[in-house]
Amino acid sequence: MKKHLLTVVSNKEIAHRIFELKLSGPGVKMMVTPGQFLHVKVGEHTSKLLRRPLSICDVNLEKEEVTLLYRAQGEGTIQLSEKQSGEKVDVLGPLGNGFTSETINLGKRALLVGGGIGVPPLYYLGKKMTDKGIKVSFVLGFQSKKDSFYLERFQELGETRVTTIDGSLGINGFVTDAMGPLLEDEPSIYSVGPAVMLKAVEEKAAGLDGYLSLEERMGCGIGACFACVCPTDTRESGYVKICSDGPVFKMGEVVL
Amino acid sequence: MKKHLLTVVSNKEIAHRIFELKLSGPGVKMMVTPGQFLHVKVGEHTSKLLRRPLSICDVNLEKEEVTLLYRAQGEGTIQLSEKQSGEKVDVLGPLGNGFTSETINLGKRALLVGGGIGVPPLYYLGKKMTDKGIKVSFVLGFQSKKDSFYLERFQELGETRVTTIDGSLGINGFVTDAMGPLLEDEPSIYSVGPAVMLKAVEEKAAGLDGYLSLEERMGCGIGACFACVCPTDTRESGYVKICSDGPVFKMGEVVL
Amino acid sequence: MNRLNVNLPGLQMKNPIIPASGCFGFGKEYAKWYDLSVLGGVTIKAATLEGRFGNPTPRVAETESGMLNAIGLQNPGVKKIMEQEIPELEPYHIPILANIAGSTEEEYIEVTKQISSHPLVSAVELNISCPNVKEGGIQFGTDYKSAASLTRKVKAASSKPVYVKLSPNVANIVEMALAVEEAGADGLSMINTLIGMKLDWKTGTPILANKTGGLSGPAIKPVAIRMIYEVSSKVSLPIIGMGGVSCAEDVIEMMSAGASAVAVGTANFVNPYVCPEIIEKLPALLDDIGIDQISELTGRSTVKWKTPLSSR
Amino acid sequence: MNRLNVNLPGLQMKNPIIPASGCFGFGKEYAKWYDLSVLGGVTIKAATLEGRFGNPTPRVAETESGMLNAIGLQNPGVKKIMEQEIPELEPYHIPILANIAGSTEEEYIEVTKQISSHPLVSAVELNISCPNVKEGGIQFGTDYKSAASLTRKVKAASSKPVYVKLSPNVANIVEMALAVEEAGADGLSMINTLIGMKLDWKTGTPILANKTGGLSGPAIKPVAIRMIYEVSSKVSLPIIGMGGVSCAEDVIEMMSAGASAVAVGTANFVNPYVCPEIIEKLPALLDDIGIDQISELTGRSTVKWKTPLSSR
Ligand SMILES: Cc1cc2nc3c(=O)[nH]c(=O)nc-3n(C[C@H](O)[C@H](O)[C@H](O)COP(=O)(O)OP(=O)(O)OC[C@H]3O[C@@H](n4cnc5c(N)ncnc54)[C@H](O)[C@@H]3O)c2cc1C
Ligand SMILES: Cc1cc2nc3c(=O)[nH]c(=O)nc-3n(C[C@H](O)[C@H](O)[C@H](O)COP(=O)(O)OP(=O)(O)OC[C@H]3O[C@@H](n4cnc5c(N)ncnc54)[C@H](O)[C@@H]3O)c2cc1C
Ligand SMILES: Cc1cc2nc3c(=O)[nH]c(=O)nc-3n(C[C@H](O)[C@H](O)[C@H](O)COP(=O)(O)O)c2cc1C
Ligand SMILES: Cc1cc2nc3c(=O)[nH]c(=O)nc-3n(C[C@H](O)[C@H](O)[C@H](O)COP(=O)(O)O)c2cc1C
Ligand code: FES
Ligand code: FES
């Protein structure tokens, strides 16, 4: 848990408004757990003060290079998308509890379900799992074909089913409409996306074990400001902090 | 009077915290009058909203290149000093009433007196005057040797006397301590600097004709906000706006 | 049909964008930059009975995402404004909102009588919230009883609709708004500047000669949005919203909070073309959010909301 | 001699830098980032009698050079705080300022009794200015009579010095400060957040589930400086200043305005190391301006000043 000044290796648009940002620096060594995130400052003199939480999408330890995929939608990520190679980016991290090895070793088969910008962390997770000999398959949901990204890479790791809300690619509908067949061999479930999607996934995969990664607007990103709490019945306190207790939680642990 | 997006040709430190910024673009064509200024935005996403008024120090019309000299002292100019070649700078201008040709043609001899960051506009003024066959001499005041700049260039235009407050270069003292000898052939006076200095120059040159360029904190820079007024007895309104009526005024016209 | 037009008492405007008082001089300076006839209307600088020179300089200071000003109601006096300034705006055929200030009820009343009688003046903006002069009316702006009394008298003296410009430097903005509504105001302008100060850390002394000044710019927008939201849900007067608006998105946000028109102040200093640029961009944004008529935006925030996160 | 040390009632601090309440949790989170013993002191999150879960999310929104928060005084209750949270700070040997909130005078009094009795608590910060809960004490914070009455009772119930934390959402901050001074407060903390709001322009709905929230960060610093300046010239209580402080220069500005110590809130989110970095930089800045002892800064702005321009 540290503050790093990483150097932009590349920062390019790989799909509609989706940017692939590669950062390098000694700090990358620590980024070994999928599902953890970096808390990214979008600029030095900017009026946008708050950091943006972005998931670790891939890491190359030899090159000390971390990859983030983000959608340039709001003013902060749009500013981030203007960063040129060679510029510095101030990040905190790796933060949060990601998909730890215990979490990963639930079983021999895993189904990874992601929606929109919930997809990036599943790539690093899938890689780690295949390294461990776990058979992974993916369901990735996007708004539309132009918003989709990294599909070939996911296919290299395992069977990948894509859904789009406008039907322009893969199955027309939501991720839950594509999960069915992949649930038959009772995989453990790993899902990242907006709360509404996670809720649907949880219901669809009822009875199976798994982990969910939550999203919430954050202040500090390190557990101090109580911006990102989520109610739970499983802890005496009655809540968890997504930034520091999560973002990854056991299915059913938190009230979505 | 326009808004231009100019391109940074170069932006380098030529003396202690003094930067020479060369900007190019079609807009430069309009920048023909010395003493006018550009109202410069220091960044795009910055929390520093107000523009910085910077005087035109030199112009190359063929290359469509304007030179500004500024001291990176406060947060805005420090941000400006981080601009790299190729980046864009948003400027308004040329603004204000500078040293017009009538103003310049007061006589055959001119003494140009500048203090600190009041020095830059005198270079463009001196050039225009020598072009017109006017004999120019300069008195340039700095805090100390390390703060001085452009001396050789001024010498190319005419006799140049330098004063420093710590005596590390030229005459030890204020500009007024060096003016004496140069006043003998009764030149017309042109002076730019902080109010205290202009006041002293006015007294020292009592009896001579001349023009002064004033400084004040500005809002709009175009005469709309009344931030930059200066009292005068010579106008019915009782005031002038430095940004639009000035920054150049006839000696004695405004109350310093 | 013009999808941007809005109609407020005395102000029939082809779009809701009006430069804010004191940030646009008397118009002629910006007329050198663009054709003012594109504007919905224009608010002119505060008029007092006699001319005022205002405060010593420095009169402005920069703050994070904002600025402080202490101009001090400098103006040539109502007579000169009517004779020399207002006529210059005639060619643009846009509604003129005349901002007025004073030290006493009598001064306010007299200025109102005179300026509201000018054929080119569409409405009067009663500035009871200038923080920068001991007698700029702020005393009326923070006590709702005197605000109501002044409003009643000015309204009686005015031959044009009266908008009361509220100060945000109060504990209860709704109470103030209700008081002036009850007193007969035709509309509200909000917000004026927050009182602020900046010191030079090196010398430890105030940057402004007046020491304190009015804080404006994007920094105060959240306060403006909150106050407009609160007031619009309790008061039935049209609101000219202002405070930190710098882009078309801000205009939509402020109208959603309850404003019927939007004034742009400080942003004019950052970009002299900001008003025409906003006006040009608005239709595209309305398309994005599926709104036909911009006036439909007013107060839509009060409908039940969902969290932005799950709406991704 | 330590040139940074400052002494306030109950707070003997080796430097004037204190993390602000609610922005530093109960300390242990930041203890993972640096050794808290470098701090002048620490303010812990508001304690109420019973545990509170706080508001629904989203609880934060970003604004220009600032942020809105509506946490809603989430805390485990005074008992757990005393048993589980405060002891974790013991190893750092720094003064602890315990921020307390409540819905009723009785709750405030009971929380004060309990928490002030904790051996590690150096002083109590009476939060009568939380804008984010209907019953977070803001009702005490905007009416000076109830503020005074509450202060008197809390002071009587407290075995440690009491700092009253003032709300900036008032028309007359000096009146409020005088009232609590008169009522026996040992010091003031100012300012709490301004009430603000942000809407999602696309949906027209508030970003915060609570709709309104507290505005903090550099955007509000000019308001904080102004209020501290006004109050310090009228009131003889020591002031813990806060509001937008993000660097060592800001600390010097705020102390010059009249603060005796400075709390840092939002800036911790931007840079978790901001407090130690400020503390490290202060001596060099004091050298620049020729000040030996940092406490000499307090209130220097009130000495006759000259314009920054001519001082170039
Ligand atoms: C643990 C975690 C991991 C994430 N990983 C990724 C990722 O890998 N790729 C990606 O594109 N996005 C990711 N997100 C979402 C991402 O943080 C937001 O899209 C981003 O912060 C929006 O910033 P903006 O400048 O575009 O929007 P703005 O509207 O300018 O943001 C304003 C404020 O709201 C916050 N905010 C707005 N939307 C969201 C959101 N959906 N979630 C959290 N905060 C939000 C911002 O952080 C900022 O503080 C993740 C979020 C979390 C919580
Ligand atoms: C007509 C005119 C011409 C000028 N020409 C030059 C020049 O050629 N080279 C140069 O180095 N400087 C020049 N100056 C001064 C220059 O504008 C200021 O040094 C600069 O604005 C300071 O900005 P900052 O970010 O360094 O300081 P900050 O303290 O960050 O500035 C904060 C605010 O105060 C204003 N301000 C601060 N100091 C001054 C000042 N001395 N004069 C006017 N505004 C100030 C800034 O514009 C800004 O709005 C000129 C000023 C005027 C009025
Ligand atoms: C330089 C300046 C001068 C102003 N003068 C006046 C004035 O004369 N009368 C008035 O009612 N408001 C005046 N205001 C306040 C603005 O009209 C507006 O209410 C405020 O600045 C908030 O809007 P903004 O953030 O868009 O600037 C002035 C503001 C500034 C910055
Ligand atoms: C997320 C957050 C939570 C806060 N919680 C409290 C609180 O519990 N009690 C309190 O008195 N002030 C609270 N505050 C106000 C701060 O202590 C401080 O007064 C205010 O944020 C201004 O300082 P800043 O601009 O440095 O943040 C909170 C502020 C923030 C941003
Ligand atoms: S973001 Fe601050 S506690 Fe999670
Ligand atoms: S800076 Fe606005 S009038 Fe001169």
TrEMBL record, chains A, B:
InterPro entries: Cbr1-like_FAD-bd_dom, Cyt_c3_hydrogenase_gsu, Dihydroorotate_DH_ele_sf, Dihydroorotate_DH_Fe-S-bd, Dihydroorotate_DHASE_ETsu, FAD-bd_FR_type, FNR_nucleotide-bd, PyrK_electron_transfer. Binds 1 FAD per subunit. Gene3D superfamilies: Dihydroorotate dehydrogenase, electron transfer subunit, Nucleotide-binding domain of ferredoxin-NADP reductase (FNR) module, Translation factors. Keywords: 2Fe-2S, Electron transport, FAD, Flavoprotein, Iron, Iron-sulfur, Metal-binding, Pyrimidine biosynthesis, Transport. Its cofactor is FAD; [2Fe-2S] cluster. The keyword Transport applies. CDD domains: DHOD_e_trans. [2Fe-2S] cluster binds at C220, C225, C228, C243. Pathway: Pyrimidine metabolism; UMP biosynthesis via de novo pathway; orotate from (S)-dihydroorotate (NAD(+) route): step 1/1. FAD binds at R52, P53, L54, S55, L69, Y70, R71, G76, T77. The keyword Transmembrane does not apply. Pfam families: DHODB_Fe-S_bind, FAD_binding_6. Residues 1-101 form the FAD-binding FR-type domain. Responsible for channeling the electrons from the oxidation of dihydroorotate from the FMN redox center in the PyrD type B subunit to the ultimate electron acceptor NAD(+). Belongs to the PyrK family. HAMAP family: DHODB_Fe_S_bind. Heterotetramer of 2 PyrK and 2 PyrD type B subunits. This is Dihydroorotate dehydrogenase B (NAD(+)), electron transfer subunit. It comes from Fictibacillus barbaricus.
TrEMBL record, chains C, D:
PANTHER family: DIHYDROOROTATE DEHYDROGENASE (FUMARATE) (PTHR48109:SF1), DIHYDROOROTATE DEHYDROGENASE (QUINONE), MITOCHONDRIAL-RELATED (PTHR48109). Pathway: Pyrimidine metabolism; UMP biosynthesis via de novo pathway; orotate from (S)-dihydroorotate (NAD(+) route): step 1/1. Binds 1 FMN per subunit. The lineage of its organism: Bacteria, Bacillati, Bacillota, Bacilli, Bacillales. It catalyses: (S)-dihydroorotate + A = orotate + AH2; (S)-dihydroorotate + NAD(+) = orotate + NADH + H(+). Residues 4-286 form the Dihydroorotate dehydrogenase catalytic domain. It comes from Fictibacillus barbaricus. Belongs to the dihydroorotate dehydrogenase family. Type 1 subfamily. It is found in: Cytoplasm. The keyword Nucleus does not apply. It is an enzyme of class 1 (oxidoreductase). FMN binds at S21, K45, A46, N99, N127, K165, I191, G217, G243, G244, G265, T266. Its cofactor is FMN. Heterotetramer of 2 PyrK and 2 PyrD type B subunits. Substrate binds at K45, N69, A70, I71, G72, L73, N127, N192, T193. Catalyzes the conversion of dihydroorotate to orotate with NAD(+) as electron acceptor. Its EC number is 1.3.-.-. GO terms for molecular function: dihydroorotate dehydrogenase (NAD+) activity. It comes from the Bacteria. The active site is at C130 (nucleophile). Keywords: Cytoplasm, Flavoprotein, FMN, Oxidoreductase, Pyrimidine biosynthesis. This is Dihydroorotate dehydrogenase. CDD domains: DHOD_1B_like (cd04740). It holds the Pfam family DHO_dh.
